[in-house]
Design a protein that fits this description.
heterodimer; A: 245 residues; alpha/beta; Rossmann fold; four-stranded antiparallel β-sheet; 10 strands; globular; B: 252 residues; mainly alpha; flat
């Protein structure tokens, strides 16, 4: 990355607070900034409020304190968030939540159509995204008949077709096999957008992100130092001398 | 797994514009529902049988579906012939069989079979999503059409969730019995399915909001016009006119 360009914040969270009704706050005084071009990982235990954080960023859950700024615009009302959701594409943990249309193309074109694109424009952007993801032949497939990995890639397509400036990926590896994982890693490396990934998988985060944060006690802590250490590990063909990246 | 076996096929009927098929099925079933003369009803049943034949459907599968309907119809045969008042057809011991009752049960049988067969061959020969889009382009209210499409989309997910719960209950040694424990388990299962369905609905709605959903649905599909469609609708109208005239002829 070019170090001379001044940081251009895409998402700025300033001392935000969120609590589910009648419970202790999940997010306490959390501040966080994502600059353009940054690829960030978020590592945290279950129930630590990672998904909540994403839902707060796109305004699905109303914060009780602090400010959210997206691309420099203050998020004050639902109207602001409606605008922001077109800029920040949220990939849900469960693809079945995201895909609700009968066919793949309907689902991928759903976002662009909502953004006021004509049928032709929506179709052309959807087809472009599908071919970028290597899913061209999936166009007329029935969404609920796809496999888990295919569903995940199609959900990613439904986000990319809105041409967002930042991606929020919630546990994208959940339930994916090795082949789909590799495919997803490849896609993320070639994508031209900033993103935040929530994942438990440190290897995946090291592959796909530049900075890794931890969510602890409702606050983020940066963990940029890479600690070199070794693990016992096992895989097929392990007896042949080899190297790991 | 819920499936739609009839929607796969390449008969003349499968190739007709879904909207024309829906309109024809609607018109036909309204007419059949108000017929009374046995001759007209027999003609309708024959028309419907012909439709099933034209659609090239698996006879056994159609028969199984009809058996389901006729199970209900059988209930009418158990009650109507003995309870309707009027001319007595015959008496068998303590039972009196009335002519009007038998006639009514026969009408119900023919009507329901004719209508179901017409729907099987005209409407269930299209996939659910096609049906949804066809209904929408027939100007049915958006909300209804999407309730329909979403129900269809998520009924599978809910079915899967049901199976998951059922499996987890089974692997822990549950077997149905007549006991409070069993009823309680069933109640928990049903309750859990509702809770999960509601949570699911919430997440789906959020995902839709994230993609700019504002209460309006836009459609990508459109249905090409073809001369065959017009011909099909014409034949459908001719058939219904024939039915109506038969009814009048024997009525008078």
């Amino acid at each position: 990355m070019d170090n001379t360009t001044p940081p251009d914040p895409v998402i700025e969270l300033d001392h935000i607070r969120y609590a589910y009704p009648g419970e202790d706050p999940v997010l306490r005084d959390l501040s966080f900034t994502l600059n353009r071009g940054e690829r960030t990982g978020l590592l945290a235990p279950n129930g630590s409020g990672k998904t909540t954080l994403f839902h707060v960023i796109v305004g699905l859950l109303p914060i009780s304190g602090g400010t959210i700024r997206i691309l420099g615009r203050n998020m004050e009302s639902e109207k602001d968030f409606v605008w922001a959701r077109k800029k920040a594409g949220l990939l849900f943990q469960d693809a079945d939540d995201q895909l609700f249309s009968p066919t793949v193309i309907d689902d991928v074109a759903f976002g662009p159509l909502n953004m006021g694109k004509t049928r032709e424009e929506a179709l052309s952007v959807s087809r472009r995204v599908l071919s970028f993801l290597g899913l061209s032949e999936f166009e007329n497939r029935i969404t609920f008949k796809l496999s888990g990995g295919e569903k995940k890639l199609v959900s990613l397509a439904t986000i990319l077709s809105m041409e967002p400036e930042v991606l929020l990926l919630d546990e994208p590896l959940n339930g994916l096999d090795q082949a789909t994982r590799t495919r997803l890693t490849g896609v993320l490396e070639s994508i031209d957008a900033s993103y935040i990934i929530i994942s438990h998988d440190i290897d995946f985060l090291l592959d796909c992100t530049d900075t890794i944060y931890c969510l602890r006690d409702g606050k983020t802590e940066k963990d940029t130092t890479v600690h070199v250490h070794s693990h016992d590990h096992a895989h097929m063909m392990g007896h042949i001398p080899h190297q790991h990246k | 797994m819920l499936s739609e076996p009839f929607s796969i096929g390449n008969s003349v009927i499968h190739r007709i514009d879904p909207r024309h098929r829906i309109l024809a099925a609607f018109l036909y079933s309204v007419v059949v529902a108000v017929l009374y003369q046995l001759q007209a009803l027999a003609l309708a049943t024959a028309f419907s049988g012909l439709l099933v034949k034209t659609a090239g459907l698996d006879g056994k599968a159609v028969f199984r579906r009809l058996a389901l309907v006729n199970g209900f119809v059988a209930l009418f045969w158990l009650i109507l012939p003995f309870t309707a008042k009027g001319d007595i057809l015959f008496e068998a011991g303590p039972l009196t069989v009335y002519e009007a009752g038998v006639l009514m049960a026969l009408q119900i049988t023919l009507k329901s079979n004719a209508i179901i067969m017409a729907f099987i061959s005209l409407v269930s020969t299209m996939s659910f999503s096609t049906l949804g889009y066809a209904l929408r382009s027939l100007k049915l209210p958006h909300k209804l059409v999407f309730l329909f499409i979403l129900t269809y989309r998520y009924i599978f997910v809910i079915e899967q969730e049901y199976r998951k719960i059922w499996r987890s209950v089974k692997v822990r040694g549950f077997s149905p019995a007549t006991s409070i424990h069993c009823y309680k388990t069933y109640a928990y299962m049903i309750g859990m399915i509702f809770v999960r369905a509601a949570a699911r609905a919430d997440r789906v709605y959020r995902a839709m909001l994230c993609r700019g959903f504002n209460g309006r649905f836009h459609s990508l599909s459109d249905f090409p016009a073809s001369g065959k469609n017009g011909l099909f609708l014409f034949i459908a109208i001719v058939c219904t006119v024939l039915l109506v005239s038969t009814e009048w002829y024997f009525h008078g």
